[in-house]
Design a protein that fits this description.
This protein is mostly beta strands. Helices cover 4% and strands 39% of the residues.
Length: 768
């Protein structure tokens, strides 16, 4: 015996006023013999007070030009929806949208059906502002699914989450008919916490053309993030009808990580698509940042332009393109231009920033490739044929000689070896792009100073609608910048980060907005007029680009009074005070309260040539010093300054100053290292290049009274010793100070052991 399932009530209620008015108008037209005119109607779906209590009931009566507005209510709408009717070009689309300012929830819990919203062979449809959730126990279903054919469909600003099961997708567009799905817009949607494996969170597959996928966010999904597919004949029998002629812009994909097949989920993926622009997107923490591939045999992915994207901290690789093996498809005639990559292959899989598979005749130019500490930049297999690279910028923290490249299965150690052996990247550079804050995803480059600026292909001409990562002009200057960021050109009329305004007055260009109009709301440095922007305008004594106090220019941009305490940023001065005119100056004399020593020595040598100059200072049998007193120079929190003072008639002057920063790399290795477990034996600094004041070595050893030890050695042109002999009237003092406020000091009274034109040498000894 079979049970008969009861009819499911959709919460139908009596029609509301809007619906009754529409019926009355049509009836009146029939009675008096007038032509029937269809007027657009707005139907409100609400818990009470609207025209319907169920969304599907409103969709069932809506016709072209009508709008169904859904109000937020205490409980979700437990429905799954279908559009039974199309809109049209003349009257307009059928629109399903959230009521203004509200976030109605459509929940699939306990409701039958595969898709939360189905649009099957319909045109002129808009879905906007809904929250779609809990499509549970799915086996091939979607938050929104578009099937068959159709045109002019818009999906905007929807949130789709908790699609759970197998192939539980967010937005799916399957062009299954011979007539395409066309003029499609998918914009501003958020898809998160879904289980699309082994499909995709947002996908366009088959006969889909003339589309825009823009400003969407996909995060925390267990498969591919955004995908554009061709060649799957179970979706589209004609393998030539592929996702094509599209724009993919401004999307963000975070953590698209496949839980199958070894984990190769692309943040953004083209698999068999054609003629698609992929620009100004962000892909991070996914398996593969961005992939252009061709999984199906005989399929050729072509005409894909990948430009101005940010791709960083992905687990296996930044960009990968090509068929994954010889038996599948190929990638041909695509371009990878002006992308910024940083720190991909975080799992150390050996694929680096760029992985080239079975692909041919593709162009890779104007990109920044910045590796992790494994130094791997390119991995290229034997299927790499006639792909050309040039005008790129490469960087590894360990230096050009340590950079690793595999080109057509040949390994090259070092950037120069790769250039010579591969014949590629002849005009490319190796250097630090000076990202602003790459660790936090800010891949703007620092200006001035970045080698990326004006270093791209001199023949590059941007497309008319192409923009850099901020939406600004793609070329500012004689040549395009390498990477996604085009450094702002103040005065070009376009506000580009870090600018806060730009009124089009080109600074320094004759007859353009002369005189420079500071104080008009947008100053000549392209910042909004006001205290703290670095431009002195009416009512300000000074403007030091901040609103901090204690720097002699107050938080209201007035001079601090004479004698106000300040910091002149010189560790070798004390009693820093404001002069009443905006300047801070300290007294160049030794600090009081430093740790002293029973023994010490100082030696300065001023030789010819300057490469033979030397410095040696020893502080031994010193006052009690703990490891904590040394701070943490290894991890970047404690810096050091060596200061040397010479007295003349009892008045000290600063004659030598060397600053040693915390942390940092010296010849590709950490400059500072801890000594012993938990740094119990102190710290050591080593820099054979002597880049910081000529300092080559520092040894910091803790100890009880009479046991602490400090030693500093320097060599070469950067030592810059003062003119010798020294006055030493009556003493010379050497101090090592750290940014934690601790210092170590020894004083050398006249007469010196040696005080000559080429050498000053003296000892310090306290006799008990």
């Amino acid at each position: 015996m079979c049970a008969v399932a009861p009819k499911r009530s959709r919460g139908r209620r009596a029609p509301g006023a809007a619906h009754l008015a529409h019926i009355a108008l049509v009836a009146l037209a029939i009675l008096i013999g007038l032509p029937q005119v269809s007027e657009a109607t707005v139907y409100v779906v609400a818990e009470s007070g609207g025209d319907f209590t169920a969304i599907q009931d409103a969709l069932d009566v809506a016709v072209a030009g009508d709008t169904v507005q859904v109000r937020e209510k205490a409980t979700p709408y437990f429905e799954k929806l279908t559009f039974p009717t199309s809109g049209n070009a003349g009257t307009g689309p059928i629109t399903l949208e959230a009521f203004a300012g509200e976030d109605p929830i459509v929940d699939g819990t306990g409701v039958g059906g595969d898709n939360m919203i189905l649009i099957d062979t319909k045109s002129y449809i808009v879905v906007q502002g809904l929250v779609l959730r809990n499509n549970l126990g799915v086996n091939d279903g979607s938050g929104i699914r578009i099937l068959g054919s159709g045109s002019h469909i818009e999906l905007r600003d929807n949130e789709i989450h908790d699609m759970r099961g197998s192939h539980a997708m967010g937005i799916t567009v399957y062009g299954t008919d011979a007539t395409a799905i066309s003029d499609l817009i998918i914009d501003g949607n958020e898809i998160h916490d879904c289980e699309p494996a082994q499909s995709e969170a947002l996908t366009l597959n088959g006969n889909v053309t003339d589309f825009q996928v823009t400003n969407n966010t996909v995060r925390d999904v267990n498969s591919i993030g955004i995908d554009f597919i061709g060649g799957e004949t179970d979706i589209q029998p004609n393998p030539t009808l592929v996702a094509r002629n599209g724009l993919v812009r401004g999307n963000t994909v975070i953590r698209a990580n496949a839980n199958y097949g070894g984990g190769f989920g692309g943040g953004i993926y083209v698999d068999g698509g054609k003629d698609i622009i992929i620009e100004n997107n962000i892909s991070t923490e996914s398996d593969l940042g961005l992939e252009i591939g061709a999984e199906n045999s005989g399929t050729v992915t072509s005409g894909i332009i990948v430009r101005n994207n940010l791709i960083y901290a992905n687990e296996k690789v930044g960009i990968v393109f090509g068929g994954f093996q010889a038996s599948v498809g190929r990638v041909r005639d695509c371009a990878f231009l002006n992308n910024s990559l940083f720190g991909n292959d975080t799992l150390g899989e050996g694929l680096g920033e760029l992985w080239i598979q079975y692909a041919e005749d593709n162009t890779i130019r104007n990109n920044i490739f910045y590796s992790t500490d494994q130094n791997l930049l390119i991995y290229s297999e034997g299927g790499n044929v006639n792909n050309t690279l040039d005008y790129n910028l490469f960087f590894t923290a360990d230096g050009a000689a340590q950079a690793e490249f595999t080109w057509q299965n040949t390994f090259y150690q070092g950037f120069a070896a790769y250039q010579a052996g591969s014949g590629e990247d002849a005009n490319s550079l190796f250097g630090d792009p000076l990202y602003v804050d790459a660790g936090n995803g800010d891949l703007h480059v620092t200006a001035p100073g970045s080698p990326a600026i004006n270093s791209g292909d001199p023949a590059f001409v941007p497309d008319p609608n192409e923009a850099d990562l901020d939406g600004g002009t793609r070329v500012n200057g004689p040549r395009v910048d390498i990477g996604a960021d085009e450094v702002a050109s103040c005065g070009n009329g376009t506000t580009e980060a870090p600018e806060t305004c730009d009124d089009g007055c080109l600074v320094g260009v004759p007859n353009v907005c002369e005189p420079v109009d500071d104080g008009d709301g947008c100053d000549s440095n392209c910042t909004v007029t006001g205290c703290g922007n670095g431009i002195i305008t009416a009512g300000e004594d000074c403007d030091d680009s901040n609103t901090a106090n204690g720097d002699c220019c107050s938080g209201t941009c007035q001079f601090d009074t004479i004698g106000t305490s300040c910091d002149d940023a010189n560790a070798c001065t004390i009693t820093d005070e404001c002069d009443g005119a905006g300047a801070c100056a300290g007294s160049a004399e030794p600090a009081a309260g430093c740790r002293s020593a029973l023994r010490g020595s100082i030696q300065l040598k001023d030789r010819v040539p300057d490469t033979r100059d030397q410095l040696s200072w020893k502080f031994s049998k010193g006052d009690a010093t703990t490891v904590a007193d040394f701070g943490d120079p290894v991890n970047g929190s404690t810096s050091y300054d060596l200061c040397m003072y010479d007295e003349s008639a009892g008045l000290p002057s600063l004659i030598l100053h060397a600053s040693i920063p915390a942390s940092g790399l010296c010849k590709g290795k950490p400059c500072w290292k801890g000594a012993g477990a938990a740094n119990k034996n102190g710290f050591r600094y080593s820099d054979s290049l002597t880049t910081n004041g000529g300092i080559k070595k520092i040894t910091l050893k803790p100890g009880i009274d009479g046991k602490a030890k400090v030693q500093v050695k320097g060599k070469g042109t950067n030592v810059a010793p003062p003119p010798l002999p020294l006055a030493q009237d009556t003493s010379v003092t050497v101090q090592l100070k750290n940014s934690a406020g601790v210092c170590w000091s020894t004083t050398y009274d006249t007469p010196a052991d040696k005080n000559e034109a080429e050498q000053f040498k003296d000892k310090h000894k306290v006799v008990n």
